[in-house]
Amino acid sequence: MYMANRRFELQYSRFALLLQLLVFIGISCVLYVSLTLGLWLLSLLLLSVTWWLFQQQPKIQRFEYLSGTDWSFALHSSANIQRRSIAGMLDHHCYVVLYFTERQHVPCVIWWDQLSTAQWQQLKLCVKLH
Predict the structure, then answer these.
(1) Contact criterion met (CB below 8 Å) for 71 and 63
(2) Looking at the predicted structure, is the pLDDT value of residue 64 above 80?
(3) Which of 94, 95, 121, 126 is nearest to 108 (CA)?
């Protein structure tokens, strides 16, 4: 399998942030119609705290193919580089999901706007070859 020189530098996804905002607004509108004002304000607070906690999870800054199913991952919050084994890669057209063999690592979603066009095409090729 040809995957030499596969290094992917991830940027912050504006599309993912916009999608999260639209879902937040949609849920808020449904809750506004369904709940009293006090419960709606409480639910907005809970939604905001949940979103904030979700944003605190470590984000992948870059990853690179090593050999076989092994890849190296560098996180924004850590100077350490982790070696992870990828169990599967799914292409959903506007994003790619990476599933890891180790249970402690949650699946990683990579959006199309996090990579340059050339790197996005390389990643889609890696998904097809995997």
Answers:
(1) yes
(2) yes
(3) 95
